[in-house]
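Summary of Year 1 activities. Much of the first year was spent building the evaluation harness for sequence design. The harness presents a backbone, in tokenized form, and records the residue chosen at every position. We chose the following record to illustrate the format because it has been used consistently in internal testing since the harness was completed.
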């Protein structure tokens, strides 16, 4: 149910997005799995993801801007955030 909710929340941005890509997250050594959504265009959210251990743990993250998104203005920050989220996901460990 939570996985489907994450997908629905990401695809709510279809109205403003020029594309929505999803990539699998899989780090079996650390029991970290999930999906990373990249939402392009002037959508309110450009990055969304969820992580799970497929048993009991689940975490969802999303980046939202608190103003009307203008991709040409936010691109430098967005590129940094996407890179930073990628690093966080790769280093994620369940406690």
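For this record, the design step produced the sequence shown next.
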């Amino acid at each position: 149910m939570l996985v489907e909710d994450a997908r629905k929340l990401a695809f709510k941005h279809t109205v403003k997005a020029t594309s929505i890509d999803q990539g699998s997250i899989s780090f079996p050594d650390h029991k970290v799995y999930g999906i990373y959504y990249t939402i392009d265009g002037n959508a309110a959210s450009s990055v969304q993801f969820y992580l799970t251990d497929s048993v009991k743990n689940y975490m969802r993250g999303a980046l939202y801007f608190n103003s009307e998104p203008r991709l040409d203005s936010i691109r430098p920050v967005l590129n940094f955030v996407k890179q930073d989220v990628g690093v966080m996901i790769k280093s994620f460990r369940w406690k």
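DSSP finds two helices and four strands in the chain. Quantitative recovery figures across the full test set are reported in Table 2.
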